[in-house]
Design goal:
Elements (H helix, E strand, L loop, with lengths): L26 E3 L6 E3 L8 H10 L4 E3 L2 E2 H15 L4 H9 L5 E4 L2 E4 L5 H22 L1 H11 L9 H7 L8 H8 L4 H13 L14 H10 L1
Antiparallel strand pairs: 1-2, 3-4, 5-6
The structure holds fe (ii) ion.
Length: 223
Amino acid sequence: MLPAESECLVGGIRPVQRLANAGASAEKRSAAGNLRVMRVAEGFASVNELFGALNAARDADDEGGLSILDHCLQCADLIKVARPDDVELQVAALVHDLGWLERAPNGWALRLDAAHDVDGSQLVRRLLGPRVAYLVGSHVAAKRFLLATDSSYRAVLSARSETTLEFQGGVMAPEETEAFVALPEWEDLVALRRADDAAKIRGKLVPGLDAWTAAVEEVAAAG
Ligand SMILES: [Fe+2]
């Protein structure tokens, strides 16, 4: 459940704006004048910093009492089973929703707006490389693609995914789906998206964050 703007989440992570304000959040006034510029998320400088954000996500509600960290751990675990040889895809699953966070004076704050895929991609690109950034940056597009091509897909969407769809561009048009399947990694994007949708089970036991240290370090070393 999305928190109200003034509501403090468990552990003190505070939403910086309402979901309904999506769109405006992707822009801000430049220091030089009135020109509005796109927000650019500063990339993680180290594995330690990345794990700091993941730890902060432990206190950020994803939906219905499930934390963003637990959701990401479930997603990564599903991909590890489905794609045991693709460590980059597994790590992309682990970090795919970190774009909901942004730096705050004392750590990380939760921001609820339309650009979490783009911001997440920017956050991880420097540390984890272009493929992981690409996978993270395209996981919303995969939702829009599946809605257009799989008649049974809408039934698996969570309430929040339905809500966010409104400002993520809605269902893909036919020409967009043609472009999507021309992407080199489109099947990986679909696999990530399906794991994303399935990774919302409260109380499910999966390996914790420590279990992912070696994989993240491996991808960071190659990135
Ligand atoms: Fe997700």
